[in-house]
């Protein structure tokens, strides 16, 4: 369907309006992070810095143990995602094939539970078990985020896979586990990719768990950023720099994998 | 750095230790002569939980010196105030805190910590000549510091590290242009604030916190001037008295008529931003907010800032005072090593740095009185004068009760409500009725 | 449900009853139950205690709940939570649908631009909230500057009790419009082309096609989006906590914030737990209502 020049112009303008809130926000965020403090609190605001000032970034990177927090975030999110895939993918398969939607609902309730309502008991439990100085409390709690995401996406994905092939191999004498491993799993690879990406993002962004469960050596990036809010002086520049450092990995992931994400979200949400 | 610190101690020990010994008598001399054994806990490691603040920054910056001096390994973390307070309480109450040394805000947590008996009594360490640095003398703390650190039984379960007076930062340029002098009384302050307010140019006479919780010290500064102690002896609530009403009216008037729009949601940082821009003639806040004002990369008012003691109220001249300290967890396995850390954090070189960088004010009288320390202060002289002046009229800014947080919340909301037009009298009555059962329950 | 045989005669012959799939599901189910159920039980138990941190604990039965039902502040918070949730569902739904209709068209760089539009929902909420706080500043914030360019007087945004909820909803909407867009995009992609072809033959305008064909057909997807959004908006915490902490006064204090305040600021674990229990009941109840609504709108057909 070809468009007249007028239609093209209208579409162009509409697209511009739709992307501008997101685009301008991140642009402003970047601008704040690259300006000296006196520009940041200037009015009218200065959009383009007189000279690029990377000191906000170096200040954040040097004064705070970003390397450690980054590693912590990677370990927590990485393990929580890996474990979630390990248990979640078979579960999603089971739910899809057994049509056990009520079970899916139980898992979804985990997602609906307000985090604050289970953090106090978990904190006391982990402390009782003497785990507080390790990353385990956070890895385990992050499963509350990652497992439902994996099950949510994979269930609908397995439902779209044709069942005929699996039935044929059942007749040939394969047991359920073999069918899952040899037939369903290879076909589900694109779905797993999507589940992995989304679980990663949602786990990475989590903030509430860390406030309660993280200590000095076990802090994840979002908590570290919140903690870098300095007392006694304004620091919009360093704060924005920190905000960008935290969220950059997921933003890059979003841009790179936007196609898979869109697929996963659209197909997963419908089911 | 380390070595020089070690040397200083020894030299000072010779001077002060002997001098003090002469006054107190022989037993003290003998005790003082056995030098502090800083390396006794070489190889131990301790965890320190601090509130994110310039006080914490100074300790963190110098941490290597302590580790070299003692061989004790320190894991120190600074967490934003609110979060650190919550976390420390949760950890203490679980019986197994993850830290050995804990930073506490006396004005909020004094009674709570005492009631929980979470901190170790420091007496055994102070009595141990091998542990105690003779330079550290509890008598050296100002009256407020002593009152904060000592519990009802007279035990010392923490050491006061830094005091916070509320002072007025004022913009000399704006005052000069308006041909005004800095006010000496509440009435003059209100009059000046009104004169300096000109919404057309976006300048305002006065700015202070309007955000709930954070706004309590502002109100307290007024209350004290009206001679009101919010919680009197026997848990008597004086928050509906004539004086309290007058103070609340003053708060409402200043923040709605002479302050920038939006003060209702302002915390210190929004106030600071307005002041840094030269848009506010007076700013009432804690004494530790000075350094950015004199920093040309952050401030448009460098060199134009005046620092003043809170003006005199109709009933009293008072400076609302807050403070924090360091304590040792009673559940800690490394109490002695933790004590060495406390002692070091309160030592003269560190306390001097605190004052000199404008990051805070020591409770130690000897540090404040030391001329060489004062000469090294990087802030304008007027700042130091405001500190000294405030110390003379210092009064606790918040009631010393268990439910301080509830007090701040309930009355903070009442104050905020007056800023959106509610009647001060009704709000005070409502807040008082709401707070009374909480107070009675928690102190019972 | 678990043991119910699945449909299809051939499956039954092969004994493909669902019980055989339980080994697949057990590990995930156990983990979820362990991480969720233990805290639930514990929270329920705590809610029956008079438990002020630092003081002795004692059993007080339902006293915390009794207190809750006479706590004006809790009811105000509940009302605010519902208002906040309603707005945070409605606005993203409207804007998300518009965005989806736009991105359903084909144009150059569509994939990349879609990536940019999706960024807000992927970005770390705390980081985002901090930047919004700076933008809301009544004197120095960029938002008032932008308004001044349009000749609109400066607003107080989150610094005024009257505008704080709409301002927070603005952030929430900005962040979650992409989610609705993605769900609706999925819906648009699954629509059959026949109705459009016959409509074109009948000479229907673009707007008529939108009004009479597209919108009715994507309703089930909108319900799904509303469901997902509703659950998240109810328990929204990061954004409110980082921007206003419930202020000014209590103007943006939702149940979640009030719960946090009671449990972690006032150290009243017992009362905080009672709020948590009631909040949970509320969330689950609303969830079930939404699920039931979803059933009513025939969302099954949407899978078509």
From TrEMBL, chain A:
Gene3D superfamilies listed in its UniProt record: MetI-like (1.10.3720.10)
Transmembrane spans: 9-30, 74-96, 103-129, 135-158, 179-204, 236-257
Localisation: Cell membrane
UniProt keyword annotation of Transmembrane helix present: yes
ABC transmembrane type-1 domain ranges (all copies): 70-257
GO biological process: transmembrane transport
Similarity comment: Belongs to the binding-protein-dependent transport system permease family.
Name under which the protein is recorded: Carbohydrate ABC transporter membrane protein 2, CUT1 family
Superkingdom of origin organism: Bacteria
Alphabetical list of Pfam families matching this protein: BPD_transp_1
Entry's Gene Ontology cellular component terms: plasma membrane
Principal location: membrane
Entries under PANTHER family matching the protein: INNER MEMBRANE ABC TRANSPORTER PERMEASE PROTEIN YCJP (PTHR32243:SF18), MALTOSE TRANSPORT SYSTEM PERMEASE-RELATED (PTHR32243)
Keywords: Cell membrane, Membrane, Transmembrane, Transmembrane helix, Transport
InterPro entries hit by this protein: BP-dep_ABC_trans_perm, MetI-like, MetI-like_sf
Membrane topology recorded in Swiss-Prot or TrEMBL: Multi-pass membrane protein
UniProtKB/TrEMBL annotation, chain B:
Swiss-Prot/TrEMBL keywords: Signal, Transport
Record bears the keyword rRNA processing: no
Protein name listed in UniProt: Carbohydrate ABC transporter substrate-binding protein, CUT1 family
UniProt-listed CDD domains: PBP2_TMBP_like
Record organism: Arboricoccus pini
InterPro entries membership: Bact_solute-bd_prot1 (IPR050490), SBP (IPR006059), TAT_signal (IPR006311)
One Pfam family here: SBP_bac_1
PANTHER family: ABC TRANSPORTER PERIPLASMIC-BINDING PROTEIN YCJN-RELATED, ARABINOSE-BINDING PROTEIN-RELATED
GO CC terms in record: periplasmic space
Record-stated family: Belongs to the bacterial solute-binding protein 1 family.
């Amino acid at each position: 369907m070809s468009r007249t020049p007028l239609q093209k112009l209208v579409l162009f303008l509409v697209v511009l309006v739709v992307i501008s809130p997101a685009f301008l926000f991140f642009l402003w965020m970047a601008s704040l992070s690259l300006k000296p403090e006196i520009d940041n609190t200037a009015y009218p605001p200065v959009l383009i810095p007189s000279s690029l000032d990377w000191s906000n970034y170096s200040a954040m990177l040097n004064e705070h143990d970003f390397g450690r927090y980054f590693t912590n975030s990677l370990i927590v999110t990485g393990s929580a995602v890996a474990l979630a895939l390990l248990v979640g993918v078979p579960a999603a398969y089971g739910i899809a094939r057994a049509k056990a939607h009520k079970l899916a609902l139980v898992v979804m309730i985990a997602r609906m539970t307000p985090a604050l309502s289970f953090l106090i008991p978990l904190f006391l439990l982990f402390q009782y078990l003497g785990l507080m100085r390790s990353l385990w409390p956070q890895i385990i709690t992050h499963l509350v985020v990652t497992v439902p995401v994996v099950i949510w996406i994979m269930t609908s994905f397995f439902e779209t896979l044709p069942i005929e092939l699996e039935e044929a191999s059942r007749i040939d004498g394969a047991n359920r586990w073999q069918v899952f491993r040899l037939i369903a799993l290879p076909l589900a690879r694109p779905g797993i990719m999507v589940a992995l990406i989304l679980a990663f993002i949602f786990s990475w962004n989590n903030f509430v768990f860390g406030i309660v469960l993280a200590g000095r050596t076990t802090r994840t990036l979002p908590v570290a950023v919140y903690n870098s809010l300095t007392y006694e002086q304004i620091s919009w520049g360093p704060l924005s720099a920190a905000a960008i450092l935290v969220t950059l990995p997921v933003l890059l992931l979003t841009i790179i994998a936007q196609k898979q994400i869109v697929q996963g979200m659209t197909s997963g949400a419908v089911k | 750095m380390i070595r020089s610190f070690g040397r200083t101690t020894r030299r000072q020990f010779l001077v002060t230790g002997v001098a003090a010994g002469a006054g107190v008598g022989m037993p003290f001399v003998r005790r003082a002569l056995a030098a502090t054994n800083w390396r006794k806990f070489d190889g131990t490691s301790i965890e320190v939980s601090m509130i994110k603040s310039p006080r914490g920054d100074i300790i963190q910056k110098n941490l290597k010196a302590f580790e070299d001096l003692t061989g004790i390994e320190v894991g120190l973390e600074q967490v934003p105030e609110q979060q650190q307070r919550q976390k420390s309480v949760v950890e203490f109450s679980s019986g197994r805190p993850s830290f050995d040394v804990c930073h506490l805000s006396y004005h909020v947590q004094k009674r709570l910590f005492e009631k929980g008996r979470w901190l170790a009594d420091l007496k055994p360490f102070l009595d141990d000549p091998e542990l105690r640095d003779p330079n550290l003398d509890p008598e050296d703390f100002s009256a407020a510091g002593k009152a904060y650190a000592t519990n009802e039984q007279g035990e010392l379960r923490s050491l006061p590290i830094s005091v916070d007076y509320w002072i007025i930062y004022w913009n000399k340029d704006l005052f000069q242009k308006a041909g005004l002098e800095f006010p000496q009384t509440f009435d003059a302050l209100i009059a000046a604030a009104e004169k300096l307010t000109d919404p057309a140019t976006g300048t305002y006479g006065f700015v202070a916190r309007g955000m709930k919780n954070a706004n309590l010290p502002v109100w307290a500064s007024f209350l004290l001037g009206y001679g009101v102690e919010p919680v009197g002896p026997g848990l008597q609530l004086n928050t509906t008295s004539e004086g309290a009403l007058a103070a609340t009216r003053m708060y409402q008037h200043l923040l709605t008529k002479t302050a920038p729009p939006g003060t209702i949601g302002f915390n210190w940082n929004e106030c600071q931003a307005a002041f840094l821009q030269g848009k506010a003639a007076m700013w009432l806040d804690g004494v530790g907010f000075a350094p950015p004002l004199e920093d040309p990369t952050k401030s448009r008012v460098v060199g134009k800032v005046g620092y003043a003691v809170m003006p005199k109220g109709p009933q009293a001249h008072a400076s609302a005072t807050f403070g924090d300290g360091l304590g040792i967890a009673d559940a800690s396995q490394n109490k002695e090593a933790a004590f060495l850390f406390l002692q070091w954090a309160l030592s003269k070189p560190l306390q001097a740095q605190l004052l000199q960088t404008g990051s805070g004010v020591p409770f130690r009288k000897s540090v404040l009185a030391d001329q060489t320390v004062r000469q090294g202060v990087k802030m304008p002289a007027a700042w130091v004068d405001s500190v000294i002046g405030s110390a003379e009229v210092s009064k606790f800014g918040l009631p010393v009760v268990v439910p301080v947080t509830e007090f701040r919340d309930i009355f903070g909301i009442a104050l905020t409500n007056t800023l959106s037009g509610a009647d001060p009298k009704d709000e005070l009555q409502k807040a008082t009725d709401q707070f009374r059962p909480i107070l009675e329950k928690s102190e019972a | 449900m678990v043991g119910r045989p699945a449909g299809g005669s051939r499956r039954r012959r092969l004994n493909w009853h669902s019980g055989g799939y339980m080994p697949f599901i057990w590990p995930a189910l156990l983990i979820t139950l362990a991480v969720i159920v233990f805290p639930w039980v514990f929270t329920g138990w705590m809610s029956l205690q008079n438990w002020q941190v630092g003081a002795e604990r004692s059993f007080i039965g339902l006293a915390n709940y009794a207190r809750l039902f006479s706590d004006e502040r809790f009811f105000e918070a509940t009302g605010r939570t519902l208002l906040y949730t309603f707005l945070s569902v409605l606005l993203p739904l409207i804007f998300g649908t518009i965005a989806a209709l736009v991105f359903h068209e084909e144009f150059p760089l569509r994939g990349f631009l879609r990536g940019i539009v999706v960024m807000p929902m992927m970005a770390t909420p705390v980081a985002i909230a901090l930047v919004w706080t700076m933008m809301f500043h009544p004197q120095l914030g960029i938002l008032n500057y932008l308004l001044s360019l349009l000749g609109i007087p400066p607003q107080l945004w989150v610094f005024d009790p009257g505008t704080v909820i709409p301002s927070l909803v603005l952030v929430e909407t900005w962040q979650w419009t992409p989610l609705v867009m993605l769900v609706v995009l999925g819906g648009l992609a699954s629509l059959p082309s026949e109705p459009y072809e016959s409509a074109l033959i009948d000479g229907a305008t673009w707007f008529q096609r939108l009004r009479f064909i597209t919108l009715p057909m994507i309703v089930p997807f909108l319900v799904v989006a509303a469901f997902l959004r509703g659950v998240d908006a109810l328990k929204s915490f990061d954004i409110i906590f980082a921007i206003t902490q419930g202020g000014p006064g209590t103007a943006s204090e939702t149940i979640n914030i009030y719960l946090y305040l009671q449990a972690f600021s006032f150290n009243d674990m017992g009362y905080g737990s009672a709020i948590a229990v009631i909040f949970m009941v509320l969330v689950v109840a609303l969830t079930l209502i939404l699920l039931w609504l979803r059933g009513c709108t025939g969302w099954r057909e949407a899978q078509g």
